[in-house]
Amino acid sequence: MAERQTVAEIRARLAECARHYGGAIPRDAALVWDGYFAALIEWGLVSPDEHAELLALLPPLPDSPVMGVFLGWERDRAE
Q1: d(Cα 2, Cα 61) in Å, to the nearest integer?
Q2: Among candidates 12, 48, 10, 49, which has minimal Cα distance to 70?
Q3: Rounded to an integer, what is the distance from CA 66 to the centroid of its chain?
Q4: 26-47: per-residue pLDDT in tens?
Q5: Segment 7-27, tens digit of pLDDT
Q6: What's the pTM value of the predicted model, to 2 decimals?
Q7: Exposure class string for 27-37: b at 16+ Cβ within 10 A, else e
Q8: What single DSSP character describes residue 4?
Q9: Angle, alpha carbons 38-43-47 (nearest 5°)
Q10: Residue ranges per domain, the chain?
Q11: Cα angle 72, 41, 6; round to 5
């Protein structure tokens, strides 16, 4: 089993990603991160508070499909 990553380690990886893209994480990379964060919370590797903290580091993602995949498409539409 993989060792649990800390939020600090993930923050560092996000910063590295932003540097790679010239200072801002583009939408396609942010969607990948969003999905990764959803997996971390689903598998119990981060808390809901940590998940919210990580999401706040991403650029806004209107119309992201991640919540539909994570929660189910009908629930995503209801909110």
Answers
A1: 28
A2: 48
A3: 9
A4: 999 999 999 999 999 989 999 9
A5: 899 999 999 999 999 999 999
A6: 0.80
A7: eebbbebbeeb
A8: P
A9: 70
A10: 7-78
A11: 160
